[in-house]
Design goal:
The longest helix has 18 residues. Helix 4 runs parallel beside helix 5 and helix 7 runs parallel beside helix 8. The protein is elongated. The relative contact order is 0.09. It is 18% helix and 28% strand. The protein has 601 residues and is of the alpha+beta class. Strands 1, 2, 3, 4, 5, 6, 7, 8 and 9 form a nine-stranded antiparallel sheet that branches. It starts with 6 loop residues before the first helix and ends with a helix.
Length: 601
């Protein structure tokens, strides 16, 4: 994901953007005024917005005063910090500032004529940059900015200024009217309101707390609890400030089981059963699965070919698993588990089961073949465990709320069809890897410039589209690289901190690829289980029982949180998932015994 470019390309781009050399600002005319707000960053980041949380104010090094901006590029983010300034049409302005670092840019956009920028390839100490521009005939505001370059270290900026004729003052927009709640579902409420002249964004409040900032006049609140009343308000905002909140509107979500819980206990233990293969943990017969397990995922249903959509499931052959039961005994044992209140699902995919529903024919075959497995074994539902290259986003598919990639769209359609066929008690779970979910906070698909891994965040549109049908999401917090949390720090697997940070993201929501206009809404706590390996042999990132309990304490009781501060407390967190039941038995049941002994309240 290295976004560096050859120096020749950088030079060419800079020449096209307004020149390489720092320009000395012309003497300001008598009528000119300083228009940049908090250009010395003495008031922190007041007036400035930095992409992906990349900016911070530091006491050293500074050019003037006691503070300066420091911003750190990461991956596909170039650490741009900007502010919008009111200007006059057909007027000339001088932009200048002091910077330190490699490949630091200063520029202005939205000028109405030719947008400008200037930059330095290397400034080991403070270097002044400057440029000028003339606004267009109808231009009343411009955006000034500074940014670094992809893959480079942090840069510093200080004493940024924009000199020129001051524009007519922007007025704070009026309070929105016409706020209306549409028809709720069990977990969502659609909202609409009337546009406000001069507003550039709208802030949505639920119960008095800010939950979203949008640019349009509609928003759907999701992740809500069934049969619950919620109050909403909206305010309008622009560069001058925020209006008062609108009159409140109330809406009550419908009942509906919250995505098909199927009678799960308040806190559930989910495990995968190696039913179609053997490995070092040995084969476990269905009848021998301990009572601790509330959801049993049969691993795995696999396709006849990657793109066929034709899913098959068979029990482990006797040559591989000498103690395998007969199909009749297996089915009888499933019925006995269900009679005891357990749920048994078919898990599709796994490490070796690549599934790409690239055509509608593959989609339809998927539905019919999965239905056949569910019907034959009398199962309670479906677990989506697509890994590897099953899901990836096509170039240009950048909005998780409106996916266009066929393998994504067809999977969503197939699962909705299965849900409709089997009804409200159909149990739907998903077990993506962190690469496909939480990594979406930083990267989404191939990125705005291309070159990123197109699988990054690729589960997000699936989860979002199916959130009202989803019983459980248990992301695999193992076999993972380090992932950035909502604290903009990287977290590594194996300890409580990783599970706390990764789960907090799901229960709080997050901007996708740092774009606050594309915010992935929080899921309900009863929809979330934490995925862990049952033993050191089961996968990288094994977490000791002590650390598992710390993570549960922090998320459900706000205790033993360590250095990470969560954005809430969720006593209704559903539970834990593990790979696998077989490996837990191999490890003398350490994982399940710890779960059984944990005190939730």
């Amino acid at each position: 994901m290295d976004r560096t470019r050859p120096l020749t390309l950088l030079l060419a781009g800079a020449l096209a953007a307004g020149g390489l050399l720092a320009l000395t600002p012309a003497a300001a005319r008598a009528a000119d005024t300083e228009l940049a707000r908090n250009g010395g960053f003495e008031a922190g980041l007041d007036g400035w917005t930095c992409t992906a949380g990349s900016g911070a104010v530091v006491p050293s090094p500074v050019h003037g005063g006691t503070k300066a901006l420091q911003a750190t590029p990461a991956g596909s983010d170039n650490a741009q910090c900007s502010q919008t300034v009111t200007v006059k049409p057909n007027s000339t302005y001088t932009l200048s500032g002091w910077v330190r670092g490699s490949y630091v840019y200063l520029g202005a956009s939205g000028t109405g004529t030719t947008d400008v920028s200037t930059w330095t390839a290397s400034a080991p100490d403070w270097q002044k940059l400057g440029t000028t521009f003339t606004t267009g005939a109808s231009t009343t505001s411009v955006t000034i900015y500074t940014h670094g370059w992809y893959g480079t270290p942090a840069y510093q900026a200080d004493d940024l200024s924009l000199y020129g004729p001051g524009g007519d003052p922007v007025q704070t927009p009026a309070t929105p009217t016409g706020l209306t709640a549409g028809s709720p579902t069990s977990t969502s409420v659609p909202l609409t309101w009337s546009a406000v002249p001069g507003a550039t964004s709208y802030k949505v409040y639920r119960g008095g707390a800010l939950v979203a900032t949008v640019t349009g006049t509609s928003y759907t609140a999701t992740g809500l609890a069934p049969s619950t009343s919620y109050g909403f308000q909206v305010s309008a905002a622009n560069s001058a400030g925020e209006s008062a909140k609108s009159a409140a509107v109330s809406a009550t979500t419908t009942s509906g089981g919250g995505g098909g819980g199927g009678g799960l206990p308040a806190h559930a233990l989910v495990g995968y059963l190696h039913a179609s293969f053997a490995n070092g943990s040995g084969y476990t017969r269905m009848a021998d699965v301990p009572d601790s397990w509330d959801v049993i995922d049969l691993a795995f249903g696999e396709p006849t070919s990657v793109t066929s959509g034709d899913i098959r499931f068979t029990l482990c052959p006797a040559t591989e698993c000498p103690n395998v039961e007969s199909p009749a005994d297996f089915k009888a044992a499933i019925k006995a588990k269900q009679a005891a209140g357990k749920k048994v699902l078919i898990s599709i995919g796994g490490q070796n089961g690549q599934v790409q529903l690239a055509t509608t024919a593959a989609r339809d075959t998927f539905v019919s073949s999965v239905s056949k497995i569910i019907d034959e074994y009398g199962l309670d539902g479906l677990d989506i465990d697509f890994e590897g290259h099953s899901l990836s986003l096509q170039t240009g598919d950048t909005d998780f709320r409106n996916p266009t990639t066929p393998v994504i769209v067809n999977l969503i359609s197939a699962v909705k069809t299965l849900k409709a066929k089997y009804g409200p008690n159909f149990v739907l779970t998903m077990a993506p890897e962190t690469f496909f979910v939480q990594l979406g906070h930083q990267y989404y698909g191939s990125g705005p410039w291309g070159g990123q891994d197109p699988r990054a965040g690729a589960y997000l549109p699936v989860i979002h589209a199916l959130r009202d049908d989803l019983t459980l999401l248990h992301v695999q917090d193992y076999n993972s690289g380090s992932i950035m949390g909502l604290d903009n720090q990287y977290h590594s697997m194996g300890g409580a901190d990783f599970h706390i940070a990764m789960t907090d993201m799901l229960l709080t929501g997050f901007p996708v690829a740092g774009n606050t206009d594309r915010f992935f809404p929080a899921l309900r706590p009863d929809q979330i289980a934490i995925g862990l390996p049952a033993s050191t042999q089961a996968g990288n990132g094994h977490t000791t029982p002590t650390e598992v309990n710390k993570a549960l304490d922090c998320l459900t009781k706000k205790q033993n949180c360590g250095t990470y501060t969560t954005h809430g407390t969720w006593p209704a967190l559903r539970g834990l998932m593990t790979w696998s039941i077989n490996w837990d038995r191999y490890n003398q049941g350490e994982f399940s015994r710890n779960f059984d002994a944990y005190t939730w309240n």
